[in-house]
Amino acid sequence: MMASVLVLSLNPALDLSVGLERLTPGRVNRTRETHLEAAGKGVNVARVLVALGHRVTLSGFLGSDNDGVFRRAFETLGVEDACLRVPGETRTNVKLAEDDGRVTDINGPGVVIDAEAWQRLIGELERRLTASTGRPGRW
């Protein structure tokens, strides 16, 4: 039986993976390949749940300045986008993968969430959960 699942993603990320022969700090390094992907633990959980056949709604926060990669990923995956947009950019994490297997991760800071945005998210989650159970506060 297919379940409807609400996934909460509070600190999603754009993952930029960079393949290169060898990283030489302090020098210009040429990449072999790059790949940009919507990610973060909640997004990855949603991706797996969809692959297992579940209906997924993803909620949380996205920076409004760079949400396009997420919108396209959610559409492609078939995930309902219930994320609240906040001013700024969703964090970007960079993964430098060298041919010898060494990997360097550089993780960016998350978008700043103010009290009003938190209250909007709580209200949205309460609305969705109450609608799904028919009973306020009983999820």
Automatic annotation (TrEMBL):
EC class of the enzyme, as a word? transferase
Q: Which residues form the Carbohydrate kinase PfkB domain?
A: 21-109
What are the entry keywords? Kinase, Transferase
Q: What are its E.C. numbers?
A: 2.7.1.144
* Protein name, entry field: Tagatose-6-phosphate kinase
Query: One GO molecular-function annotation for this sequence?
Result: phosphofructokinase activity
Recorded GO cellular component terms are: cytosol
Q: Which Pfam families is this protein grouped with?
A: PfkB
Q: Which Gene3D superfamilies match?
A: 3.40.1190.20
Q: Which domain of life is it from?
A: Bacteria
The record's InterPro entries line, in alphabetical order, gives:
Carboh/pur_kinase_PfkB_CS (IPR002173), PfkB_dom (IPR011611), Ribokinase-like (IPR029056)
